[in-house]
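User: Can you help me understand a structure? I only have the sequence.
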Amino acid sequence: MAHYRQPTVGILGGGQLGRMLIQSGMDWNIFFSVLDPDPQAPCRSIAEFRTGQLTDYSTVLDFGKTCELITIEIENVNVAALKELVRLGKKVFPQPEVIELIQDKRTQKKFYRETGIPTADFMLVENAEQVRQQKTFLPAVNKLGREGYDGRGVQILKNESDLVKAFDSPGILEKLVKFEKEISVIVARNESGEVKTFPAVEMVFHPVANLVEYLFSPASISEQLSAQAELIAKKIITGLNMVGLLAVEMFVTKDQQLLVNEIAPRPHNSGHQTIEGNITSQYQQHLRAVLNLPLGDTSTTKPSAMVNLLGEEGFSGEAKFQGLPEVLELNGTYVHLYGKKLTKPFRKMGHVTVVDSDPQSLIKKVNFVKQTLKIIA
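Assistant: Let's start by predicting it. Here is the structure, written out as tokens:
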């Protein structure tokens, strides 16, 4: 009979993803230690908490030495320190080499091309002048190679007049894809090589903030396309030899082809609804993967939706949650607040999961949540 001992798990990053990971791990008596630069980070009160820069070599190294296993909830971390921790015998999942590859969209895209993963046509650019020389490649998307997230570091260049917006830093120029919808597949892999995917979800992005505003699970796509999306996700995580959880965002084109957009090696915004909408949540699955435990059943229990709670435009300061009692009166709604005291426009302050076996009723409830629950100051 196999024995299991709870290790000390270190998390680089103390945001809402880490918070929900810790909440999931509490059921298994896992002890967590967290490193984050913000003394008011969401994880500060529910785990051993240390303040420090995630990009500083010595800080990450010293933190990691106190843990048996280290994982991440954000990619912008010091990879050199993580490699040294592996050399010292620590388990680091996802592996430092995987994080390093994903930290730069340029190496991400080259990986897709080299391994036959379908993705939009692209070219590498070093500066704004190189972008301006590619007028015939427009319309296109200019993305920073490093440190872009939640819509930051992305510029759509539709015509020649938009070229003034080009980034003067290393990045990629990617053909603008005419897509029908955007989907995400979350896939997990443990050390033993077991791989499981969650059903694809359909994402709707905020028109201004360029981050997910809400999503539906499962995605409204054919069974054939859904199976193809899951195969692509499995191919990526296996090709990376990665241990942990990987979110794979894809475009569904007008002619029903799939193109991989970006990947994230951690729990992801497109998987929040799994807490109530699937048999195993993405957070428990991540823990199962990095602890080399059997992966859980990812089946959906009911159709679900997730609405991101973003700080309202025009409000900055101590957060107030307008309309919360009205939303809590709805059957099948689950409110998750992230413990952030201060709000600002488009800051992720929480999310609401809605479950309903009737798709039309689900949509009505999503619209009610969007119109009713506001984060103001």
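Now, to help you interpret it: The first strand starts at residue 8 and ends at 12. The mean pLDDT is 95. Let me know which part you'd like to focus on.
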